[in-house]
Specification:
Layout: H1 8-20, H2 23-30, H3 34-48, E1 53-56, E2 59-62, H4 64-84, E3 98-103, H5 105-110, H6 112-122, E4 127-131, H7 138-142, E5 148-151, E6 161-168, E7 170-175, H8 186-191, E8 193-197, H9 218-225, E9 231-236, H10 241-245, E10 251-256, H11 257-260, E11 269-272, E12 281-287, H12 295-314
Parallel strand pairs: 3-4, 3-5, 8-9, 8-10
Antiparallel strand pairs: 1-2, 5-12, 6-12, 7-10, 7-11
Helix pairs in contact: 1-2, 1-3, 1-4, 2-3, 6-12
């Protein structure tokens, strides 16, 4: 096919159709009539020699060809938009831009306070709108309505850019007077009552079922690998809570080590290595290709990386209350 004869508007149509999976909603988003969008879909099918969208009992479903095209079309449109935009400089010291960042509670507890100090120093007029995972969808990010997501991602759309911020392990917070402190092993760990804390996925969350360990996260998955299950008494989504709750002398909180070390000066608590192997996890930032070339966005990404590096340098060594290193990965030969 002669590229000169390709109507670029059709790629805009395809981008919206694959996002909405609905002809009527796609037409509404682009401000055109439904017949015009239907005609556009017909032309797209002819251009790619593929049905692209197929009707099913659950609505329109993309074909394999359409799924392959989606990130490529998004990238083409992002680069085209950047090419057509006038060159703009970003002056942090005078900017009054609003940055909307979705952060997990973990990231908010460990990264954001120091990031804000750096932002206030370099860009005192910048406004930050910090959103929770429940506030944001991947569609919001894809369309650039949210500047950044900082989270632990199990999966993420292929079109998104992403960068590792750091890796973290797990530690246990326990009341100093808890009897298991003097004999902390897998048996006493499993006999204890536990605090569960997590909320990392996108979209609205729902309650958990304490009878099912599946889907509860890294800690319980690690226990399942060795055929064990802990007794969870309290479920919370806020990383500020374990430090308070673990002060009860019959509760154990297993949580990321960076959060646990925030309690290193608390005289009521000790920090111990888990008595079984839990794989480390990655904290990442992700953003839409639409925002990738933006000068202000580039400044924000550089500042986040700088902040993470400074925090890694300032992280104190493990306190004396740590046990010897946790067990090695049982799958490692």
């Amino acid at each position: 096919m002669n590229v000169g004869k390709v109507d670029l508007n059709l790629l805009v149509y395809l981008d919206v159709l694959l996002r909405e999976l609905n002809v009527t909603r796609a037409a509404e988003q682009l401000g055109i009539t439904q017949p015009a969008m239907s005609n556009g879909l017909k032309r797209l099918r002819e251009m790619f020699n593929d049905p692209l969208l197929i009707r099913s009992s659950e609505g329109m479903k993309p074909t394999e060809r359409a799924l392959d095209l989606q990130p490529k079309v998004r990238q083409i449109l992002a680069e085209t938009q950047h090419m057509l935009e006038p060159k703009q400089e970003f002056k942090a010291i005078t900017s009054r831009r609003v940055f909307r960042i979705m952060v997990s509670d973990y990231a908010e507890a460990t990264l954001i306070p120091t990031l804000i100090k750096h932002i206030r120093s370099e860009a005192p007029h910048i406004i930050l709108d910090l959103l929770t995972p429940s506030d944001v969808s991947y569609q919001d990010m894809e369309q650039g309505r949210v500047d950044m997501a900082i989270n632990r991602f199990d999966e993420i759309p292929q079109s998104f850019h992403q960068q590792l911020i750091w890796k973290d392990s797990f530690s246990c917070l326990i009341n100093r007077n808890n009897p298991i402190v003097e004999n902390f092993n897998l048996k006493t760990y499993l006999a204890a009552q536990h605090i569960w804390v997590s909320k990392t996925g996108m979209g609205v969350g729902f309650g958990v079922n304490p009878e099912k360990s599946g889907g509860l996260g890294w800690i319980d998955t690690a226990l399942q690998r060795i055929g064990q299950k802990r007794k969870i008494t309290i479920f919370t989504r806020h990383y500020q809570m374990p430090g308070l709750l673990a002060q009860n002398n019959d509760l154990v909180a297993t949580l990321p080590s960076r959060v646990a070390r925030m309690q290193a000066e608390n005289p009521k608590l000790v920090i111990l290595d888990p008595p079984f192997y839990i794989p480390p996890f990655e904290l990442k930032m992700a953003w839409s290709p639409l925002l990738h070339p933006n000068a202000g966005h580039q400044w924000l990404r550089r500042l986040i990386v700088y902040t993470a590096e400074r925090l890694k340098e300032e992280l104190p060594p493990p306190p004396e209350t740590y046990l010897p290193a946790a067990l090695e990965d049982p799958d490692r030969q």
